[in-house]
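Recap from last week: sequence in, structure out.
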Amino acid sequence: MLEGVDEDADERAVLFVRENGKPLADAVAELKTVVLQGRLTLELAPDLDDERSLPAPNGRTLVHYAPYGVVVGIVPWNSPITLAALQIIPALLAGNSVVLKVPESCPLALTLTAELMARALPPGLLNIISGLPADVGDTLTLHPDVGKIAFTGSIPSARKIIANAARR
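Predicted structure tokens:
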């Protein structure tokens, strides 16, 4: 999943600077962090398959993972690549598909990075969508097939997403 993500990182960093306004060193660091955090997350992946039994007051508690199905990821403009990777990689490892809504103000560097990740996956497992929150965001957060929403952003946006999710 991370093969090739560091390809053309310098070119994507320049694009990231142009669309986001980050200093070049910060843009390069964010792109390189994706691979590092991805590798660290992948190292922990085998633990997902470990079913554990924990003692409980009246018996035992069985802990295991169960995929949600479709996870929607929504990230802000200020650190979109890092935050998207923190949503995408764990969701995929847990057996979900992901629909990533990129920030409308700076979608390009993130879209190119996510496309590199998607190349290593079966088609349809990682999907990228862009558009205005009132159009795309509402459609995603109200959709009945969405099992989980991962979001980082403003409080007003969080309130809207929570209200939408509660309706379904």
